């Protein structure tokens, strides 16, 4: 089933859109608060389509994500009970929030470094840092370092790979897509 090839082609077309940078910024900002799709989905094809602007795209993505992280932090700090907690319960993520709180208790701000770089849902850690009233400046520093490392790595790999990377990615995109789905289901079952 070639679902991911079709999606990949659409994302490549979107990445060439005149407003693609705005979409990337919006997606990066919202992903740090509530949006389920990581900005890498747009950053990678945009960096492939315009390798000369890859660093610019990585910088935009990092800045928007860190600013979104600050908003997530503020929501956790100021509006957890009236707004965030009911929303988390409504979408059925109560367990993930408890898990994030346990990780914060165990690892402190180092978990922000891990969450910002890895495929862990960064939004849980931005809100949880606010709920647990972590120190804001160290939180922002860890967010900046981890998000920049991740997004500059993605942009750099796409810039380095160029047309050959795009061709290889197109060839394996369906396998990669289904493997990601399987990993997400496995992670959900394990963390559940």
Automatic annotation (TrEMBL):
InterPro entries per UniProt: DedA_domain (IPR051311), VTT_dom (IPR032816)
GO cellular component terms attached to this protein's record: plasma membrane
Entry annotated with the keyword Transit peptide: no
Keyword entries, A-Z: Membrane, Transmembrane, Transmembrane helix
VTT domain ranges (all copies): 41-158
KW Ribonucleoprotein (keyword) present: no
Pfam families: VTT_dom
Spans traversing the lipid bilayer: 57-80, 107-125, 137-160, 172-191
Protein name as annotated: Membrane protein YqaA with SNARE-associated domain
Organism: Gallaecimonas pentaromativorans
């Amino acid at each position: 089933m070639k679902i991911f090839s079709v999606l990949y082609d659409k994302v490549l077309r979107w990445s060439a859109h005149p407003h693609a940078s705005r979409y990337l910024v919006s997606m990066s900002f919202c992903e740090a608060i509530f949006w389920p799709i990581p900005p890498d989905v747009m950053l990678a094809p945009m960096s492939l389509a315009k390798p000369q602007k890859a660093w610019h795209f990585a910088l935009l993505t990092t800045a928007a994500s860190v600013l979104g992280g600050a908003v997530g932090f503020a929501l956790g700090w100021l509006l957890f009970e009236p707004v965030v907690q009911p929303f988390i319960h409504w979408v059925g993520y109560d367990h993930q929030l408890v898990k994030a709180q346990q990780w914060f208790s165990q690892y402190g701000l180092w978990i922000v470094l891990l969450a910002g770089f890895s495929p862990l849902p960064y939004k849980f850690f931005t809100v949880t840092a606010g709920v647990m009233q972590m120190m804001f400046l160290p939180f922002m520093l860890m967010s900046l370092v981890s998000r920049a490392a991740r997004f500059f790595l993605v942009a750099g790999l796409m810039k380095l790979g160029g047309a050959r990377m795009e061709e290889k990615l197109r060839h394996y995109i369906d396998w990669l897509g289904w493997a990601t789905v399987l990993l997400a289901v496995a992670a959900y079952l394990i963390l559940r």
